[in-house]
Design goal:
The complex is a heterodimer. Chain A has 13 helices and 31 strands. By secondary structure, chain A is α+β, with helices and mostly antiparallel strands. Among the domains of chain A are: 199-321, YVTN repeat-like/Quinoprotein amine dehydrogenase (Methylamine Dehydrogenase, Chain H, 7 Propeller); 451-572, no CATH class. In chain A, strand 3 (22-24) and strand 4 form a beta hairpin. By secondary structure, chain B is mostly beta strands. Chain B folds into four domains: 206-337, 7 Propeller (Methylamine Dehydrogenase, Chain H); 348-369 and 601-725, YVTN repeat-like/Quinoprotein amine dehydrogenase (Methylamine Dehydrogenase, Chain H, 7 Propeller); 371-591, Methylamine Dehydrogenase, Chain H; 729-805, no CATH class. The longest helix of chain B has 22 residues, at 740-761. Chain A: Residues 363-565 form the Utp8 C-terminal domain. Chain A: InterPro entries: Utp8_b-prop, Utp8_C.
């Protein structure tokens, strides 16, 4: 679920005033790349082991490549000639060390997309005409939408269906259409919207058409073009205003968005940004990505970025598109952040109301301890389940207030209460913060959520025997596989355990984790003494138990057999 | 908003132990329930009419004493309640108000109506007295209706018998037998209503044993059942000599003379109905009845009707009315209701109300006892499964009938007597179905009991059983094929989490995980185990342990589990912490940021966890809250609650529409009763989309895998929270469920085939070839037309239509 830093594949020539700097065929992959570079060439690059130009056919500086396809080393390019203002399909064959122009077919309108499939070349042009080449020189129209629609996007799906998106700027209607390559309309849909569309962008992958307009990316599910979801770029904190946005979808529910110099990798299912990279000073566009195989996890994919004048490669590691990979990944939006400044009362379910807590009346109170405990309805100085239910954000705010503004004079009662509260957030270095107050320190060790690392550290340095015991008790509550005694001075600790005669459980764990080889002989002898004393005590105790059992068996009938049916007890 | 949902009581209810009666012609059987009157047609065993009690007809038969048939109009019945109220009800016709008339019998202070001895439309003889187990005075009073329009009654006391413990009536209703206690003597008094002689015959009962039941025949033969199981027969003219009938070995709970006094029928805790032929002393037995026989009624010659008390646990008042044919002793009707096992003794309801009404400053939702019960709905058949000891009762909500009892564990089939009560039956603690409804997991607890007085007497054995749903169709040439459904045991695992380790939580796998054929169990020290079938296609290969997360050394009884829909994550609620487990590695996710947040978010002991649309819904002891799992922050839905110990029974999730329903029981200080409310929430908002009121304690609420929530209350009434709006969710979801590629190929084929038809039909005219008529119309063709219709211009609509048909 990450994007690598872009690496340069090749430099592009400087061409001014052209939107379509280059076009990449859909059959490109992580090994070979077929690129049509406006004003320069149609080229084939071999990317592995290191990118190098394999073949190229040069184009005049006035030509703009608007579409490109490759089949069996024959290149089909949609070319716009800037000087002649003419559109044409250029067919070039790759030869060993040269190229050969097979033909050039003039067309009336800009070529949006083209595809060579099963002996035929299919061409979609801006004037909503789909045509195919049935003889060598001429294209035949087989579908035409006579209207005011302009084709703005097209994509060939699985070599059998052509997806086109047409737009009527006057009526502000979008017409989505699926046409089979035989020329039959499979499905279509007209969308009329009140919002004025302009600068629409599309990308298609695995049955979903992604449509971006300003901050909204709409997911349309084929073949019925049902709007399944929409993603708000605002919520993802992706800037879009005045930015050049480009899209590509490498896999189901995943989208790569570029916004000027930023590249975002987002998951549309969970609405989260998986990764984000920035290339300072240069604007980036995503041109192409390889497609993930459906149902395979942790795919590594390849994408091509246009970065100023560089054609850059980027490797994309997919997430598993599961909740597990998305847990906690969503950053809070602006509206959520502003909402956090207020703290709401948690009402009873039988009396639901929306009320806010005036937190300043507590934080600014002269007697902070009393104000807080009264507000929380605490009967004691520790938490019980009878106390007032509050939200965790409220507790967070109070705790951060204490350590921010009252750290020099910690409010002892309030903190004692908070340290026993189950909503107390995990605070880094809590024990350090409380060291000045041994009572609170002990409270924190016993009840608060303190990491093993911090406990170990405290165990090393504490001089107070009671605290030492508390830490050991607390450590023994952790599951064994989580315990880690790397930074523990075991020699010293074991000595102390022996002298206090408390916490032998920790010794066995210490031996399990690091062994006894680092311990001094003296210590081991001491330990042995203690152990043999304990074994002797156990031995004599078990002897005693056996004796008592024998006596009991001889003298008392403790077990009285009760029959299931006792006729004797029946009385008439 | 709220009109979309509706709360209604639709089904369930418990049969009352007394009052069931035959109609005049003997073809119908009228059975009073606590929420309705049901009329069964005996020969087809079907319920043909049910008269539900609701707020509209204001019917309520609590404290019913007897139902008598009107002697003139066969459509009317007279229901007598213990407070003296009498209701005349039309049971047959569907009327808005089925109560024809009501009147009240005058009773002495503190007295209640105990029995109706003789009845006709003009006059009736009743027994009244204080309703208590201790010796009290019983009055025999005859009421006569003097004016039918004003319901004026005159009454005349026929007889008064003091210190009565028990009484009974002979079959011809002429003779009454009273057992009274004076000092140390017990006296049997026979009252003959036919004779005007006020000197009642008395017999001193000479034996010491405790008398539990009485019967008197038409010719004054007396049968006395005792707690030791012996039945004494006392004949009218030989007061000193008695005959003794011995078979029962524990209390004789019920006795009845049959027809010509030659037969005595007795029943008790053995759950065996015993027929004594008095002349020959031959016995006949009908064993293995479902419950303790507490009453036998043979007043209608053709049938014997029995009232069985079903469950011994928790004082639940579940009865079965069993109707046997007198000829072949075969069961004609067996009537019962849902049999819940409450988490707390129902006797505590009174205690609770008393303590709640006493204290002035109370939290009305903080109830000391937990009366909830564990119930689940089968995802496919939609039948309700109710834990009942070691059985699962399968109850059909639509038919309002028990379908069957699934025996989960071996146990004693007979009624327990004497020291046998010390043998504890195994009990089911949890069960769960897979999403496809084909598998069920049950967890049961076996008590070793004190019977052998062993050291292990307090030990428990836990057993996990996996069952397969078997549907078999039996083809009968005469009739239509009948499908029988049952569960077949596939795997039994003893102590699945090790010895003495109880399993606290059990859930099934989401459908995305091996088709959902898997179960997850969690124990009381945080161990989690995953069980899966050994074969993917689910043949009878058995199940085994696949993955496990080891236990910690801390114990808790608040353990809950939930599994994300995409199966990638498992959340374990343990005490007040939430632990996230990766399904693949089955280890805790090592991400301090996530763990720290999840550890400190619940606020109190967690009762239930569930995931709704990437939100984690946490029901804890003090609150219900929803956490957005993507940013790990609390949603708006944070409310304080006081749910009972097993609060997980009172919350359920509609996973199709992502709605949460929670039932909250509270004490209503105005009425001094336990009431409840049901809230339906969306996961992100604390403003409920529906609040429903119910006037009883709700014990369990469940989602029915469609649009509705089903709840059951403490009186076993079943209610429904339904969405009244007819839902188009099926239309919407159908296309998305289908695979995209599949759909596309269907459309492609359609397009191609229609264009081919077009070509063959009209090859000449190829002017339209370009935009040719190449599309066939079907139901889905115009679907897109209606999208955002309200904002559309007319010519766009035209354009759309043209597009479709062109």
């Amino acid at each position: 679920m990450s994007l690598s830093e872009p690496f340069t594949l090749t430099k592009l020539p400087r061409v001014s005033g052209v939107k379509e700097r280059c076009t990449i065929t859909k059959n490109s992959d992580a090994d070979t790349l077929n690129v049509g570079i406006s004003g320069a060439s149609i080229s084939k690059y071999i990317l592995k082991p290191s990118p190098k130009l394999a073949w190229s056919h040069s184009l005049p500086p006035s030509s703009v490549v608007t579409a490109l396809d490759e089949n069996n080393e024959v290149y089909y390019a949609g070319v716009f000639n800037k000087t002649k203002k003419s559109h044409s399909v250029l067919v070039v064959e790759k030869l060993e060390n040269d190229s050969k122009v097979l033909q050039e077919i003039e067309l009336e309108s800009k070529i949006i997309d083209l595809k060579y499939s099963v002996d035929r070349l299919y061409v979609v042009t801006e004037n909503s005409i789909i045509s195919f080449q049935d003889n060598k020189d001429k294209l035949t129209k087989y579908w035409e939408n006579k209207g005011l629609y302009t084709a703005i996007y097209s994509n060939f799906i699985n070599d059998e269906v052509i997806l086109t998106v047409e737009f009527n700027a006057k009526k502000n209607n979008i017409n989505y259409r699926l046409i089979s390559i035989e020329g039959n309309e499979v499905n279509s849909k007209i969308l009329e919207s009140k919002t004025k569309f302009s600068n629409l962008r599309f990308t298609y992958s695995n049955g979903t058409l992604y449509q971006q307009h300003e901050n909204i990316i709409t997911l349309l599910r084929l073949p019925h073009f049902i709007e399944t979801k929409s993603v708000d770029l605002d919520e993802l904190s992706i800037p879009f205003k005045g930015k050049n946005i480009t899209l590509a979808s490498p896999a189901i529910d995943r989208l790569i968005i570029t916004s000027d110099q930023d590249v975002y990798f987002i998951n549309t299912n969970f609405n989260i940004v998986l990764n984000h990279i920035t290339s300072p000073k240069s604007k980036v566009e995503i041109l192409f990505t390889t497609q993930a195989q459906p149902k395979s996890y942790h795919n590594s994919l390849f994408g091509v970025l246009l970065k100023d004048n560089d054609l850059s490669g980027i490797s994309i590691t997919l997430d598993s598109n599961t909740l597990r990979d998305s847990l906690g990944k969503r950053s809070s939006t602006k509206s959520e952040k502003s909402a956090q400044a207020s703290y709401k009362v948690v009402p009873s379910i039988l009396d639901i109301k929306d009320e806010e807590i005036d937190i300043s009346s507590i934080t600014k109170s002269k007697n902070f301890d009393d104000a807080l405990l009264t507000f929380l309805g605490a009967e004691n100085d520790y938490y019980t389940e009878k106390d007032k239910v509050v939200s965790s954000s409220f507790i967070n705010a109070i705790v951060s207030h204490i350590f921010e503004f009252r750290s020099d004079k910690l409010p002892e009662r309030a903190l004692t209460y908070l340290l026993t509260h189950p909503l107390l957030p995990t605070i880094d270095g809590l024990l350090d913060l409380l060291r000045s107050k041994p009572r609170l320190l002990r409270q924190a060790i016993v009840t608060a959520n303190v990491s093993i690392k911090e406990l170990n550290k405290e165990l090393n340095i504490t001089e107070n025997d009671e605290i030492f015991k508390d830490i050991i008790t607390r450590l023994l509550e952790f599951p064994k596989d989580k315990l880690n005694f790397k930074d523990l001075e075991s020699n010293h600790i074991v000595e102390r355990i022996l002298s206090l005669d408390f916490g032998y459980g920790l010794i066995s764990l210490l031996i399990d984790s690091s062994g006894i080889f680092t311990w001094s002989d003296e210590l081991i002898v001491k330990l042995q003494d203690v152990l043999s004393r304990k074994i002797d005590a156990l031995d004599s105790a078990s002897n005693l138990v056996a004796v008592v059992d024998q006596i009991e068996l001889k003298h008392f009938k403790t077990v009285k057999k009760v029959p299931a049916y006792s006729i004797e007890q029946l009385s008439i | 908003m709220s009109e979309e949902y509706r709360l209604s009581l639709v089904s369930g209810g418990q049969p009352l132990p007394i009052g069931a009666t035959f109609t005049e012609d003997g073809r119908h059987y009228i059975v009073p329930f606590n929420n309705q009157l049901k009329v069964y047609f005996i020969s087809t065993r079907q319920c043909i009419r049910s008269l539900k009690f609701n707020k509209l007809n204001n019917l309520n038969l609590d404290n019913l004493v007897s139902i008598k048939l009107d002697t003139v109009d066969p459509n009317l019945i007279w229901c007598f309640l213990s407070n003296g109220d009498a209701l005349v009800i039309n049971w047959k016709e569907k009327l808005v108000n089925p109560i024809i008339k009501t009147f009240k019998l005058d009773l002495n202070k503190d007295d209640s109506l105990l029995e109706i001895v003789q009845f006709n439309n003009e006059s009736f003889t009743v027994i009244t007295g204080k309703d208590s187990n201790k010796p009290h005075t019983r009055n025999i009073i005859q009421y006569t209706i003097t004016d039918n329009t004003t319901n004026t009654l005159e009454h005349e006391s026929l007889s008064i018998i003091r210190n009565v413990i028990l009484f009974t009536i002979s079959k011809n209703t002429n003779k009454l037998l009273f057992l009274s206690k004076s000092k140390s003597q017990r006296i049997l008094t026979i009252v003959d209503l036919t004779s005007k002689d006020s000197n009642n015959q008395t017999i001193v009962f000479p034996y010491k044993s405790f008398i539990t039941s009485l019967a008197i025949s038409n010719d004054s033969t007396i049968a006395v059942g005792t707690s030791s199981g012996v039945i004494h027969l006392i004949y009218e003219n030989s007061t000193s000599t008695t005959r003794i009938l011995k078979w029962h070995i524990d209390q004789v709970l019920s006795l009845s003379f049959h027809s010509d006094s030659n037969y005595l029928i007795s029943g008790g805790l053995e759950r065996v109905l015993v027929f004594w032929q008095l002349d020959t002393e031959k016995q006949q037995f009908l064993p293995r009845l479902n419950g303790d026989i507490i009453s036998i009624n043979s007043s209608f010659d053709e049938y014997i009707s029995l009232t069985l008390k079903l469950d011994e646990q928790n004082n639940s008042k579940n009865y079965e009315i069993l109707l046997l044919s007198s000829l072949d002793l075969k069961s004609r009707l067996s009537i019962n209701g849902p049999r819940q096992e409450f988490n707390s003794d129902l006797n505590n309801v009174k205690k609770l109300i008393k303590s709640m009404s006493k204290s002035s400053k109370i939290d009305i939702s903080k109830l000391k006892y937990d009366f909830t019960s564990f119930i689940k709905i089968h995802p496919i058949t939609k039948q309700i499964y109710i834990i009942n000891g070691y059985n699962l009762q399968i109850f059909d909500f639509f038919k309002n009938e028990q379908i069957s009892i699934q025996k989960i564990s071996e146990s004693l089939q007979i009624g327990k007597v004497r020291s046998e009560h010390k043998i504890l039956d195994p009990s089911i603690t949890k069960f769960e179905f897979t999403n496809d409804g084909k598998w069920m997991a049950t967890i049961e607890e076996h008590h070793h009991g004190e019977i052998d007085n062993l050291l292990s007497q307090n030990d428990l054995t836990y057993i996990l059983k996996i069952w397969k749903f078997v549907e078999s169709t039996t083809k009968n040439p005469q009739s239509t094929p009948t499908t029988s459904q049952s569960w077949e045991l596939v795997t039994k695992i003893i102590n699945p989490h090790g010895q003495h380790v109880p399993i606290i939580s059990l859930i099934s796998a989401p459908s995305s995980y091996f088709q959902g054929i898997g179960f997850l169990t969690a124990d009381n020290n945080g161990g989690v185990r995953l069980w899966r079938s050994n074969s993917v296609n689910g043949s009878n290969d058995g199940w085994s342990l696949r993955k496990l997360k080891p236990s910690s050394n801390v114990f808790s009884n608040s353990v809950s589990l939930t599994w994300s829909k995409d199966s990638s994550l498992i959340f374990l609620g343990f005490e007040d912490e939430i632990i996230s487990i990766d399904t693949n590695t089955f280890e805790e996710i090592e991400n301090p940021e996530i763990n720290n947040k999840l550890q400190n978010i619940a606020g109190s002991r967690i009762k239930s966890l569930d995931i709704v649309d990437n939100n984690l819904i946490i029901l804890s002891k003090t609150s219900i809250k929803s956490i957005n799992l993507l940013n790990l922050k609390e949603n708006d839905l944070v409310l304080s609650v006081n749910q009972p110990k097993h609060g997980e029974n009172l919350i359920t999730i509609n996973h199709i529409k992502n709605l949460i329903a929670i039932a909250v029981n509270y004490f209503n200080p105005q009425t001094n009763k336990l009431n409840s409310k049901v809230f339906v929430f969306k996961p992100t908002s604390k403003t409920p989309i529906f609040i429903g009121d119910h006037d009883d304690y709700i014990t369990s609420i469940n989602w029915n895998f469609e649009n509705d929530f089903i709840f059951i209350d403490i009186k076993s009434k079943i209610g429904l929270i339904s969405n009244s709006k007819i839902n188009n969710i099926d239309n919407e979801s159908a296309p998305t469920i289908m695979d995209y590629a599949q759909e596309m190929s269907i459309l492609l084929n359609n397009a191609q085939s229609s264009s081919e038809i077009y070509k063959t039909q009209d090859e000449v005219d190829d002017s339209q070839e370009i935009n040719g008529q190449t599309k066939s119309l079907d139901i889905n063709s115009f679907n897109n037309l209606y999208e955002n219709l309200n904002s559309i211009q007319l010519d766009t609509l035209f354009e759309r239509v043209m597009q479709v048909i062109n």
